[in-house]
Write a structure and sequence with these properties.
single chain, alpha+beta, Butyryl-CoA Dehydrogenase, subunit A, domain 2, four-stranded antiparallel beta sheet, about 15% strand, binds flavin-adenine dinucleotide
């Protein structure tokens, strides 16, 4: 399946491609595949470069600071962005990619005007506070409590595994406002200022020698009811809509194309039995299989995109992208690590430069793709029950 562009679309694609090449600093590209270790200051710097160009929020209206692109321009921009090797910015992933579109869908006009311009300009960084120590896959079991007191909610409890919380200003979260019904009922979707008294953010150190996520504690934190998204107690329905955005974004397809290309380049440099590794038939076979699987995923992605263009909201089919894309990405990163060979033991190498760092970090970090945003097991259940309509056991 191919996307055919009109002359105007081709012109736009060429403009985007040329601008990204010109304006994406090498220091940022060099860390793309090791994504979650990308220095937050570098992320902010690149966020501002994109924001100044007016390209940070392709889908957002111009009056709120977005690019105001049409459907096809959005697709072209997003695809060219990720295939160029530019990274998924955490400054953007949870704001422009998740809570921003959700506020356009469910937020009040006041919430849209208050929060969206600052997230687009990069003034505020957002994180997603859903998981708790005993509520990950079974998210509806969450226990963080919020009690109504006048026109405020008072929060008490704990969240965990919250990416980039130590750099975030705001968090969108789910809290329990009523325990009397089913566990999916009585949940409220809330926007919390992380500078509020009573909030403690504690980074969690990972094996990769940095802290990709944090624990967050609430001790009688007061949040205005004006920060509820949707209706009180109806947060589960809002969260389900958000998770579909998350799953669509979880897998930037162009980055996979970039990663497959990186494997080839690395395998051209590594020598095996006196020849470039890419000429080894066993390696070539593995590489070809990945290329074919990647093309199959691209076709599925284009099919889902064309559904979106007809105005259909992302549905449970996005679980397919998340599970297949995540597992394929892991295979690509495993092969990239193989392509680097024994150089992958170090962070830097004269011949490969930062590519060894990317290959190793990319391989380690890609493990998380099948966990966050709903693990592969959970996605398979969604596909079975909501796409294939198989009976639940
Ligand atoms: C890198 C990273 C970043 C993250 N960032 C965030 C963030 O920003 N915000 C946030 O809120 N959370 C975040 N998370 C948390 C993530 O969403 C959870 O880890 C995930 O939902 C799984 O929950 P859990 O860790 O509690 O594992 P569990 O739910 O305890 O699952 C453990 C294992 O059991 C399996 N399992 C559980 N239930 C079922 C079932 N019903 N059927 C079949 N198998 C099942 C799971 O697939 C998994 O393999 C992040 C996690 C990672 C790894």
């Amino acid at each position: 399946m191919q996307v055919s562009y009109s002359q105007d679309e081709q012109k736009f694609r060429d403009e985007v491609r040329a601008w990204l090449k010109e304006n994406t600093p090498d220091e940022i590209i060099a860390q793309t595949l090791g994504g979650s270790t990308l220095d937050p200051e570098l992320q902010k710097k690149y966020h501002k470069i994109l924001a100044e160009k007016g390209w940070i929020g392709p889908a957002f209206p111009k009056e709120l600071g977005g690019a105001g692109f049409g459907e096809m321009e959005q697709f072209i921009f997003n695809y060219e962005y990720s295939v160029s090797g530019a990274p998924r910015l955490k400054t953007q992933l949870m704001s422009v990619g998740m809570i921003g579109p959700l506020l356009l869908q469910f937020g009040t006009k006041e919430q849209q005007e208050r929060f969206i311009p600052d997230m687009l300009s990069g003034e505020t960084i957002w994180c997603q506070g859903f998981s708790e120590p005993n509520a990950g896959s079974d998210l509806a079991s969450l226990k963080t409590k919020a009690e109504l007191d006048g026109d405020e909610l008072v929060l008490y409890g704990q969240k965990t595994w919250i990416s980039i919380a130590d750099h975030a200003d705001w968090m969108f979260t789910l809290v329990r406002t009523d325990s009397s019904g089913r566990k999916q009922q009585g949940i409220t979707f809330l926007l919390v200022d992380l500078k509020s008294p009573g909030v403690t953010v504690r980074p969690i150190e990972a094996l990769t020698d940095h802290a990709p996520f944090c624990e967050i504690f609430f001790d009688n934190v007061r949040v205005p009811v004006a920060n509820i998204v949707g209706k009180m107690h109806d947060g589960w329905n809002i969260a389900k809509a958000l998770m579909q955005h998350e799953r669509l974004n979880a897998f930037p397809i162009g980055e996979l194309v970039y990663a497959v290309e990186t494997v080839r380049k690395n395998a051209e440099k590594t020598k095996f039995r006196g020849k470039p590794l890419i000429e080894d038939p066993v390696f070539r076979r593995k590489y070809s299989l990945l290329e074919i699987d990647c093309q199959a995923l691209l076709d599925t992605f284009f099919m889902l995109i064309s559904q979106l263009k007809t105005g259909t909201a992302p549905g449970p089919q996005t679980s397919f992208l998340k599970v297949y894309g995540g597992e394929l990405y892991q295979r690509v990163m495993d092969l990239d690590h193989e392509a680097i060979g024994s150089y992958g033991m170090s962070w830097y190498n004269e011949e490969f430069g930062n590519d060894v760092h990317q290959a190793t970090m990319g391989m380690i970090n890609s493990r998380s793709l099948t966990i966050w945003g709903g693990s592969s097991e959970i996605q398979r259940t969604i596909i079975a029950t909501q796409v294939l309509n198989l009976p639940r056991k």
